[in-house]
Design goal:
Layout lengths: L10 H15 L9 H8 L3 H21 L9 H21 L3 H14 L3 H10 L6 H29 L2 H22 L11 H14 L1 H28 L8 H12 L4 H10 L3 H20 L5 H26 L7 H50 L5
């Protein structure tokens, strides 16, 4: 059956993929609202605590470049189950970590194993016909994005009631259960190449040279995700300090504001299907920069901070979905490898944003953070003005 003759995937499968992505990607973000508690537990400073988020994102970027290409080489069900089992093991180690160094190493492992998300997203693209691919990927991505946003709420609520370690132990159990479910329920997907691993990695890197739109979109999203990470890594420090003095529960409830932005993902996919991706991207860059300008005035207003959070998340999710819609059309036989370059690049941007945001907050407070993060989408907009994607 040709790609144009494909039937739309059943709704239950799209929902399963969306939920799986949301549960797995949440592992990358549980630590963000818990940084104040991690500082107290391990006796480290703000910049060092931010390193937990950075380590997870570095692990994820490494997994994108070294593990996700295997999605084109191996049968996906077994690969997905193996990675989820590794993620479960790493989360257990985090939950019982006796020292900060162990926590960092386990965070790297969990980040690397959580790239299973980026095997499932190309899987969704592969089983979708051309004319609705953006819509289906957008629905799956909405699950992923809700996972990113609601992870903070769940982590805060559980930490308030039980303790931060329980957050990671519960996620470990969820990953183990998900490994079993996906191993037996996912449709079989035949490998698309039989080249050896070294050649596979070289061919992955070659994708960036071969496809300029991939390079451009990866760099755009790197700038946007850097801004996103700087905001959400440091906002817990702002909310737990005067004048807010929020509890862990308060930080979690604030994170609900950002969840409103996830609703844009299916719409962005639909508009991309109709050829509006470039205008959406430009608008998202402007919205993100404006959001940080607003956040700069919100140091004493939780309402302004919440509006800024919604705008930042909406902008980042828009460029993410539009970018994936663009790159998935480049080479259908290499979607996992193309996706690994795209996601690996922008998670490097996220890791830089997390650590630089933590350092900026340590050196210059919230004002330094919003200036640093607000410049990043403007850099992306300037780069976009010189390209056609």
């Amino acid at each position: 059956m040709t790609e144009t003759e494909q039937k739309a995937p059943p709704g239950w499968l799209v929902l399963l993929l969306a939920v799986s992505c949301g549960l797995t990607v949440a592992n990358l973000y549980y630590a963000q609202p818990l940084l104040a508690e991690l500082r107290q537990t391990f006796g480290v400073g703000e910049a060092a605590a931010g390193g937990v988020v950075t380590a997870t994102q570095i692990g994820y970027a490494a997994g994108m470049l070294l593990l996700v290409p295997l999605g084109d080489r191996l049968e996906n069900r077994g690969l997905v189950a193996t990675l989820l089992a590794l993620a479960s093991a790493g989360l257990v180690v985090i939950g019982v970590a006796p020292g900060f160094a162990v926590l960092l190493i386990a965070s790297l492992l969990v980040g690397a194993a959580s790239v299973v998300v980026q095997i499932l997203v190309p899987f969704a693209a592969d089983i979708s016909p051309d004319h609705i691919r953006g819509r289906i990927v957008g629905r799956v991505m909405s699950g992923l994005l809700f996972g990113i946003l609601l992870s903070r709420v769940v982590a805060s609520l559980l930490a308030e009631v039980t303790g931060w370690r329980v957050v990671f132990l519960i996620s470990a159990a969820a990953m183990a259960a998900l490994a079993v479910v996906l191993r037996f329920i996912l449709p079989r997907r035949a490998p698309k190449t039989d080249v050896h691993y070294g050649q596979l990695i070289r061919s992955t890197l070659a994708m960036a040279r071969k496809h300029p739109p991939l390079r451009h979109r990866a760099l755009y999203q790197s700038a946007m995700f850097g801004a996103f990470s700087a905001f959400w890594t440091t906002i817990a420090f702002v909310l737990t300090a005067p004048p807010f003095n929020y509890s862990q529960l308060g930080v979690g409830l604030f994170a609900l504001a950002g969840a409103a932005g996830a609703a844009v993902a299916p719409l962005a996919g639909r508009w991309s299907d109709h050829g509006h991706g470039r205008r959406l991207t430009a608008g998202a860059f402007v919205l993100c920069a404006a959001a940080f300008a607003l956040a700069g005035f919100g140091a004493h207003s939780v309402v302004l901070l919440a509006i800024a959070a919604i705008a930042v998340d909406t902008a980042v999710q828009t460029t993410l979905v539009v970018g994936q819609h663009t790159i998935y059309q480049l080479d259908p036989a290499a979607r996992a490898r193309i996706n690994s370059v795209y996601l690996g690049t922008f998670f490097i941007g996220g890791a830089i944003g997390s650590q630089a945001g933590s350092i900026a907050y340590h050196l210059g407070g919230w004002t330094a953070v919003v200036v640093f993060a607000g410049v990043l989408p403007l850099i992306g907009l300037a780069g976009m003005a010189r390209t056609r994607v």
